[in-house]
């Protein structure tokens, strides 16, 4: 990249931070929304998954948790969701909407304290009670919706779908806590399955924007003269299919039509990978394009395999195959957001190396081990633990690769 090109890139980045708050003595780790989140989220993923592996394999018992399965599913959906969404919104909205003031310093620290309090309250929900956990966690998601209100109220409605999906998740989360408190008759796990469907929709909406930024940034760095466009109709078809599967699974979980909807959702999500096939240039051999496409492959495979389980009469295997969606696509989506933001928004270029290869590859391996347990039931305890441990290694590698970036000012000297 020439000196002139570097100056132009720096100018574009500077335009994103014209409304950066004039707050003094802000430490680097509180200089932008994604920094403290990623510093805490990676170790949180590690601790949560190792504990879950130990509990589910029968090695450990947590006496203060009556329903460990509900804890695990809730934290993997809502605990991670609020952190990941906060990182995405607090980083992206100031770029998308001129005049949007970034959250930094003391305000950012207070929001992070709220997130931590939500995690602690749910871990000890059987000790401190449902209502405290409900207040703290609903407040966190409510704050995110308020923070994103400009996107929802935007006259052009360019990003309103993100806000509406978050509002739906807030309603679902309130429904979940109502069930936990005995005010709703719907089983908590059934509500969490609905929450997973809504979360997948949010991920599909977010990844459309992440793809646009990451792939075009990559092509610019590589000198590829083309433009990547994530086509909304393709994503919308995938979203509709996931929504249909989620609704029918909640209302008619044993209906064979759900099997065909699983195949439809799988095909719809896999169809998104067609966006990577450009008319004039070949980019599907680029590492980051492979990384990103694997998100949709794992999500699509999960829904298709759940459809297969229903139609083949192996309905007991749905929970195993669902891990292609959760451990696989869901986990890899968060990892890719952490990697892409970790490079670009610390003033660096997207870089693939042995660490990024391992981060992505090990999540895929862990997913395959977890999802295929029903075919090796005699080794299930060992495979549960092995899958959990392998899944945590990418987040350990993330800490090794990105901790110094997140703790230091941007490499290009720009605030944030």
UniProtKB/TrEMBL annotation:
Write down the Pfam families for this protein, in alphabetical order.
NnrS
Regions crossing the membrane:
37-56, 76-96, 131-148, 160-178, 190-207, 228-252, 258-278, 290-311, 323-344, 356-376, 382-399
**What UniProt keywords are attached to this protein's entry?**
Membrane, Transmembrane, Transmembrane helix
Q: Has UniProt tagged this entry with the keyword Transmembrane helix? A: yes
Family annotation (InterPro entries): NnrS (IPR010266)
Does the record's keyword annotation contain Transmembrane?
Answer: yes
Q: What is this protein called?
A: NnrS
């Amino acid at each position: 990249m020439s000196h002139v090109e570097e100056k132009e890139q720096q100018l574009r980045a500077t335009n994103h931070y014209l409304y950066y708050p004039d707050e003094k003595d802000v430490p680097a780790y509180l200089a932008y929304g994604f920094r403290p989140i990623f510093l805490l989220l990676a170790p949180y993923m590690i601790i949560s998954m190792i504990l879950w592996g130990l509990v589910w394999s029968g090695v450990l018992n947590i006496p203060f948790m009556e329903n460990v399965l509900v804890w695990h599913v809730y934290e993997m959906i809502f605990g991670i969701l609020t952190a990941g969404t906060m990182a995405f919104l607090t980083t992206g909205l100031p770029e998308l909407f001129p005049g949007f003031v970034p959250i930094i310093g003391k305000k950012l620290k207070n929001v992070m304290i709220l997130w931590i309090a939500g995690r602690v309250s749910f871990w000890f929900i059987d000790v401190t009670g449902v209502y405290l956990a409900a207040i703290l966690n609903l407040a966190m998601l409510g704050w995110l919706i308020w923070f994103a209100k400009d996107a929802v109220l935007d006259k052009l409605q360019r990003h309103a779908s993100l806000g509406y999906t978050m509002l739906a998740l807030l309603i679902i989360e309130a429904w979940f806590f109502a069930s936990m408190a005995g005010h709703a008759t719907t089983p908590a796990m059934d509500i969490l399955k609905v929450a997973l469907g809504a979360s997948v929709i949010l991920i599909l909406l977010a990844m459309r924007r992440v793809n646009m930024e990451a792939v075009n940034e990559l092509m610019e760095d590589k000198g590829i003269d083309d433009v990547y466009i994530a086509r909304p109709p393709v994503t919308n078809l995938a979203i509709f299919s996931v929504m249909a599967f989620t609704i029918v699974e909640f209302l008619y979980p044993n209906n064979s039509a759900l099997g065909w909807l699983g195949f439809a959702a799988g095909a719809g999500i896999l169809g998104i990978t067609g966006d990577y096939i450009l008319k004039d240039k070949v980019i599907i051999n680029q590492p980051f394009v492979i990384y990103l496409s694997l998100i949709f492959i794992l999500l699509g495979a999960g829904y298709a395999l759940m459809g297969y389980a229903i139609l083949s009469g192996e309905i007991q295997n749905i929970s195993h195959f669902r891990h292609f969606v959760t451990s696989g696509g869901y986990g890899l989506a968060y990892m890719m957001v952490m990697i892409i933001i970790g490079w670009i928004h610390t003033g660096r270029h997207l870089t693939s190396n042995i660490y990024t290869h391992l981060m992505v590859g090990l999540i895929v391996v862990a997913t395959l081990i977890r999802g295929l347990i029903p075919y090796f039931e005699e080794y299930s305890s060992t495979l549960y633990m092995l899958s959990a441990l392998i899944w945590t290694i990418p987040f350990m590698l993330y800490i090794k690769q990105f901790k110094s970036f997140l703790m230091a000012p941007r490499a290009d000297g720009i605030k944030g």
